[in-house]
Amino acid sequence: MAEFAPNAFGLVYGPGLLVTIVVIAAMRLAAVRNEVDEVAELNLDATALLAGGPERVAEMALAGMVMAGTIEARETVKLLVSKNPYQPRADEHPIDHVLLATIPMEGTLPGPVVRAAADVARPWEEALAGLVVPPRQQRLLILIPAMAALVLALIGVWWVSARTVAGRTTGLVPLMPMAATAVLAWVVFDRPRLTRAGRARLAAIRRSTDHLLSLAATGVTSLPAEDALRMVALYGREAMTGSLLPLRRVLDAYKTRGRVEGDTWDYRQGASTV
Predict the structure, then answer these.
(1) pLDDT tens digit string along 162-198?
(2) Which ranges of 166-253 does DSSP label H, i.e. alpha helix?
(3) Would the pTM count as exceeding 0.70?
(4) Counting Cβ atoms within 10 Å, is residue 170 exposed (0-12), middle (13-18) or buried (19+)?
(5) Within 10 Å of residue 159's Cβ, how many Cβ atoms?
(6) Closest Cα to residue 251, out of 74, 27, 132, 23?
(7) Could you tell me if 6 and 171 are in contact, meaning their C-beta atoms sit under 8 angstroms apart?
(8) Measured distance CA(3)–CA(166) in Å, rounded
(9) What is the DSSP pairing of strand 255-259 with strand 71-74?
Protein backbone atom coordinates (compact mmCIF):
# COMPACT_ATOMS: atom_id res chain seq x y z
CA MET A 1 0.00 0.00 0.00
CA ALA A 2 1.33 3.43 -0.91
CA GLU A 3 2.53 5.60 1.94
CA PHE A 4 2.75 9.36 2.30
CA ALA A 5 4.79 11.31 4.78
CA PRO A 6 2.69 13.81 6.78
CA ASN A 7 4.11 16.75 4.84
CA ALA A 8 3.51 15.02 1.49
CA PHE A 9 -0.04 14.17 2.48
CA GLY A 10 -0.67 17.78 3.42
CA LEU A 11 0.70 18.96 0.08
CA VAL A 12 -1.75 16.70 -1.74
CA TYR A 13 -4.77 16.97 0.55
CA GLY A 14 -4.52 20.71 1.22
CA PRO A 15 -4.78 21.89 -2.40
CA GLY A 16 -7.52 19.33 -3.04
CA LEU A 17 -9.52 20.73 -0.13
CA LEU A 18 -8.89 24.28 -1.28
CA VAL A 19 -10.10 23.54 -4.82
CA THR A 20 -13.21 21.84 -3.43
CA ILE A 21 -14.06 24.82 -1.23
CA VAL A 22 -13.51 27.27 -4.12
CA VAL A 23 -15.80 25.26 -6.42
CA ILE A 24 -18.54 25.05 -3.78
CA ALA A 25 -18.20 28.76 -2.98
CA ALA A 26 -18.56 29.56 -6.68
CA MET A 27 -21.71 27.42 -6.86
CA ARG A 28 -23.21 29.23 -3.87
CA LEU A 29 -22.36 32.61 -5.37
CA ALA A 30 -23.92 31.67 -8.70
CA ALA A 31 -27.05 30.42 -6.93
CA VAL A 32 -27.69 33.65 -5.02
CA ARG A 33 -26.69 35.94 -7.89
CA ASN A 34 -29.93 35.42 -9.81
CA GLU A 35 -31.46 38.86 -10.29
CA VAL A 36 -34.85 40.10 -11.44
CA ASP A 37 -35.61 43.35 -13.21
CA GLU A 38 -38.99 43.89 -11.59
CA VAL A 39 -41.09 41.91 -9.14
CA ALA A 40 -44.84 42.25 -8.86
CA GLU A 41 -46.44 43.00 -5.51
CA LEU A 42 -46.37 39.84 -3.39
CA ASN A 43 -49.59 38.59 -1.86
CA LEU A 44 -49.69 36.91 1.55
CA ASP A 45 -49.04 33.43 0.16
CA ALA A 46 -46.02 34.65 -1.82
CA THR A 47 -44.74 36.61 1.19
CA ALA A 48 -44.98 33.53 3.41
CA LEU A 49 -43.30 31.42 0.72
CA LEU A 50 -40.46 33.92 0.43
CA ALA A 51 -39.97 34.28 4.18
CA GLY A 52 -40.29 30.68 5.31
CA GLY A 53 -40.92 28.31 2.45
CA PRO A 54 -43.95 26.07 1.78
CA GLU A 55 -44.36 25.13 5.45
CA ARG A 56 -44.79 28.81 6.35
CA VAL A 57 -47.68 29.04 3.89
CA ALA A 58 -49.37 26.14 5.67
CA GLU A 59 -48.75 27.65 9.10
CA MET A 60 -50.21 30.98 8.01
CA ALA A 61 -53.30 29.27 6.65
CA LEU A 62 -53.74 27.38 9.92
CA ALA A 63 -53.46 30.67 11.81
CA GLY A 64 -56.16 32.18 9.63
CA MET A 65 -58.47 29.25 10.27
CA VAL A 66 -57.92 29.44 14.02
CA MET A 67 -58.74 33.17 14.02
CA ALA A 68 -61.83 32.50 11.90
CA GLY A 69 -62.98 29.76 14.29
CA THR A 70 -62.91 27.11 11.58
CA ILE A 71 -60.45 24.88 13.45
CA GLU A 72 -59.16 24.66 17.01
CA ALA A 73 -55.66 23.90 18.28
CA ARG A 74 -55.87 21.78 21.45
CA GLU A 75 -52.51 22.16 23.13
CA THR A 76 -53.20 19.60 25.89
CA VAL A 77 -53.30 16.77 23.36
CA LYS A 78 -51.31 18.52 20.58
CA LEU A 79 -54.09 18.05 18.02
CA LEU A 80 -55.80 20.17 15.38
CA VAL A 81 -59.57 19.80 15.45
CA SER A 82 -62.15 20.89 12.88
CA LYS A 83 -65.20 22.68 14.29
CA ASN A 84 -67.60 21.53 11.58
CA PRO A 85 -67.90 18.72 9.00
CA TYR A 86 -65.99 19.57 5.84
CA GLN A 87 -68.07 20.73 2.88
CA PRO A 88 -66.00 21.60 -0.22
CA ARG A 89 -66.70 24.87 -2.01
CA ALA A 90 -65.97 25.70 -5.64
CA ASP A 91 -64.19 28.96 -4.76
CA GLU A 92 -62.11 27.47 -1.97
CA HIS A 93 -58.41 28.33 -1.73
CA PRO A 94 -56.32 25.21 -2.57
CA ILE A 95 -54.45 25.38 0.77
CA ASP A 96 -57.71 25.73 2.71
CA HIS A 97 -59.10 22.77 0.78
CA VAL A 98 -56.19 20.52 1.75
CA LEU A 99 -56.20 21.64 5.39
CA LEU A 100 -59.94 21.26 5.91
CA ALA A 101 -59.98 17.94 4.08
CA THR A 102 -57.24 16.53 6.33
CA ILE A 103 -58.37 17.92 9.72
CA PRO A 104 -61.27 15.80 11.04
CA MET A 105 -63.60 16.74 13.88
CA GLU A 106 -61.99 14.09 16.09
CA GLY A 107 -58.62 15.76 15.64
CA THR A 108 -55.28 14.95 14.04
CA LEU A 109 -51.60 15.62 14.57
CA PRO A 110 -50.42 18.72 12.67
CA GLY A 111 -47.39 17.12 11.00
CA PRO A 112 -49.21 15.32 8.15
CA VAL A 113 -51.54 18.32 7.74
CA VAL A 114 -48.68 20.81 7.32
CA ARG A 115 -46.80 18.47 4.97
CA ALA A 116 -49.86 18.00 2.73
CA ALA A 117 -50.47 21.75 2.50
CA ALA A 118 -46.76 22.44 1.93
CA ASP A 119 -46.76 20.00 -1.01
CA VAL A 120 -49.49 22.11 -2.62
CA ALA A 121 -47.56 25.36 -2.04
CA ARG A 122 -44.13 24.07 -3.12
CA PRO A 123 -44.70 24.46 -6.91
CA TRP A 124 -45.60 28.11 -6.31
CA GLU A 125 -41.91 28.83 -5.75
CA GLU A 126 -41.55 28.89 -9.54
CA ALA A 127 -43.47 32.18 -9.52
CA LEU A 128 -40.71 33.61 -7.30
CA ALA A 129 -37.97 32.97 -9.86
CA GLY A 130 -35.07 35.30 -9.18
CA LEU A 131 -36.03 35.64 -5.51
CA VAL A 132 -35.72 31.99 -4.45
CA VAL A 133 -32.82 29.70 -5.39
CA PRO A 134 -34.29 27.10 -7.79
CA PRO A 135 -34.97 23.72 -6.12
CA ARG A 136 -32.50 21.95 -8.46
CA GLN A 137 -29.69 24.28 -7.38
CA GLN A 138 -30.67 23.84 -3.74
CA ARG A 139 -30.37 20.07 -4.15
CA LEU A 140 -26.95 20.41 -5.81
CA LEU A 141 -25.78 22.63 -2.95
CA ILE A 142 -26.55 19.70 -0.64
CA LEU A 143 -25.37 16.81 -2.80
CA ILE A 144 -21.99 18.10 -4.00
CA PRO A 145 -20.64 19.29 -0.59
CA ALA A 146 -21.94 16.08 1.02
CA MET A 147 -20.16 13.92 -1.57
CA ALA A 148 -16.99 16.00 -1.25
CA ALA A 149 -17.07 15.65 2.55
CA LEU A 150 -17.47 11.88 2.21
CA VAL A 151 -14.59 11.54 -0.27
CA LEU A 152 -12.25 13.73 1.79
CA ALA A 153 -13.14 11.84 4.96
CA LEU A 154 -12.50 8.46 3.29
CA ILE A 155 -9.11 9.65 1.98
CA GLY A 156 -8.18 10.75 5.49
CA VAL A 157 -9.29 7.43 7.00
CA TRP A 158 -7.32 5.51 4.34
CA TRP A 159 -4.15 7.47 5.05
CA VAL A 160 -4.43 7.13 8.84
CA SER A 161 -5.12 3.38 8.49
CA ALA A 162 -2.12 2.92 6.23
CA ARG A 163 0.16 4.73 8.67
CA THR A 164 -1.24 2.81 11.64
CA VAL A 165 -0.84 -0.59 9.96
CA ALA A 166 2.74 0.31 9.09
CA GLY A 167 3.37 1.27 12.71
CA ARG A 168 4.06 4.90 11.87
CA THR A 169 2.79 7.97 13.69
CA THR A 170 0.26 10.26 12.04
CA GLY A 171 0.90 13.43 14.02
CA LEU A 172 -1.72 16.14 13.66
CA VAL A 173 -2.51 15.33 10.02
CA PRO A 174 -5.77 13.43 10.88
CA LEU A 175 -7.17 16.75 12.08
CA MET A 176 -7.17 17.99 8.46
CA PRO A 177 -9.83 15.56 7.11
CA MET A 178 -11.83 16.02 10.31
CA ALA A 179 -11.81 19.79 9.85
CA ALA A 180 -12.62 19.46 6.14
CA THR A 181 -15.60 17.21 6.89
CA ALA A 182 -16.87 19.63 9.55
CA VAL A 183 -16.60 22.65 7.24
CA LEU A 184 -18.36 20.92 4.34
CA ALA A 185 -21.08 19.60 6.65
CA TRP A 186 -21.69 23.18 7.79
CA VAL A 187 -21.96 24.22 4.14
CA VAL A 188 -24.64 21.56 3.58
CA PHE A 189 -26.81 22.76 6.47
CA ASP A 190 -26.22 26.47 5.84
CA ARG A 191 -27.09 26.44 2.15
CA PRO A 192 -28.73 29.61 0.79
CA ARG A 193 -32.46 29.52 0.01
CA LEU A 194 -32.93 33.10 -1.20
CA THR A 195 -31.05 35.03 -3.85
CA ARG A 196 -29.65 38.49 -3.15
CA ALA A 197 -32.75 40.00 -4.71
CA GLY A 198 -34.92 37.74 -2.55
CA ARG A 199 -33.16 38.76 0.65
CA ALA A 200 -33.42 42.43 -0.29
CA ARG A 201 -37.13 42.10 -1.10
CA LEU A 202 -37.84 40.28 2.17
CA ALA A 203 -35.93 42.91 4.15
CA ALA A 204 -37.94 45.67 2.47
CA ILE A 205 -41.25 43.95 3.29
CA ARG A 206 -40.21 43.51 6.91
CA ARG A 207 -39.20 47.17 7.16
CA SER A 208 -42.63 48.16 5.88
CA THR A 209 -44.25 46.27 8.77
CA ASP A 210 -42.01 47.56 11.57
CA HIS A 211 -44.92 49.56 12.96
CA LEU A 212 -46.81 46.31 13.54
CA LEU A 213 -44.14 44.78 15.75
CA SER A 214 -44.95 46.92 18.79
CA LEU A 215 -48.66 46.27 18.33
CA ALA A 216 -48.07 42.54 17.96
CA ALA A 217 -46.34 42.52 21.33
CA THR A 218 -49.75 43.11 22.93
CA GLY A 219 -51.21 40.02 21.24
CA VAL A 220 -51.80 39.13 17.62
CA THR A 221 -55.59 39.50 18.08
CA SER A 222 -55.09 43.24 18.58
CA LEU A 223 -54.20 43.51 14.89
CA PRO A 224 -56.58 43.39 11.95
CA ALA A 225 -56.77 39.86 10.57
CA GLU A 226 -54.77 40.65 7.42
CA ASP A 227 -51.99 42.35 9.42
CA ALA A 228 -51.91 39.48 11.92
CA LEU A 229 -51.54 36.99 9.08
CA ARG A 230 -48.86 39.16 7.47
CA MET A 231 -46.86 39.00 10.71
CA VAL A 232 -47.20 35.20 10.76
CA ALA A 233 -46.17 35.08 7.09
CA LEU A 234 -43.02 37.11 7.84
CA TYR A 235 -42.04 35.78 11.25
CA GLY A 236 -43.74 32.40 11.53
CA ARG A 237 -44.65 30.90 14.89
CA GLU A 238 -42.87 33.71 16.75
CA ALA A 239 -45.75 35.98 15.70
CA MET A 240 -48.39 33.59 17.04
CA THR A 241 -49.53 35.34 20.20
CA GLY A 242 -52.88 35.95 21.83
CA SER A 243 -55.51 33.54 20.49
CA LEU A 244 -52.84 31.88 18.36
CA LEU A 245 -50.73 30.75 21.32
CA PRO A 246 -52.41 27.29 21.46
CA LEU A 247 -51.56 26.78 17.77
CA ARG A 248 -47.97 27.78 18.38
CA ARG A 249 -47.70 25.33 21.27
CA VAL A 250 -49.17 22.53 19.17
CA LEU A 251 -46.64 23.26 16.42
CA ASP A 252 -43.86 23.52 19.01
CA ALA A 253 -44.20 19.76 19.45
CA TYR A 254 -42.20 19.57 16.22
CA LYS A 255 -39.43 21.89 17.37
CA THR A 256 -35.90 20.52 17.07
CA ARG A 257 -32.74 22.06 18.47
CA GLY A 258 -29.08 22.03 17.52
CA ARG A 259 -29.43 23.02 13.88
CA VAL A 260 -27.11 25.60 12.37
CA GLU A 261 -29.80 28.29 12.35
CA GLY A 262 -31.11 27.53 15.85
CA ASP A 263 -34.57 26.17 16.57
CA THR A 264 -36.36 24.69 13.57
CA TRP A 265 -39.57 22.75 13.02
CA ASP A 266 -39.38 19.38 11.27
CA TYR A 267 -42.84 18.20 10.24
CA ARG A 268 -41.43 14.94 8.84
CA GLN A 269 -40.87 13.69 12.39
CA GLY A 270 -43.44 12.62 14.92
CA ALA A 271 -44.41 15.17 17.53
CA SER A 272 -41.87 14.91 20.33
CA THR A 273 -44.34 15.62 23.12
CA VAL A 274 -47.23 13.45 21.99
Answers:
(1) 666 666 655 555 566 666 666 666 666 666 788 888 8
(2) 175-189, 196-208, 210-216, 225-235, 245-251
(3) yes
(4) middle
(5) 22
(6) 74
(7) yes
(8) 9
(9) unpaired
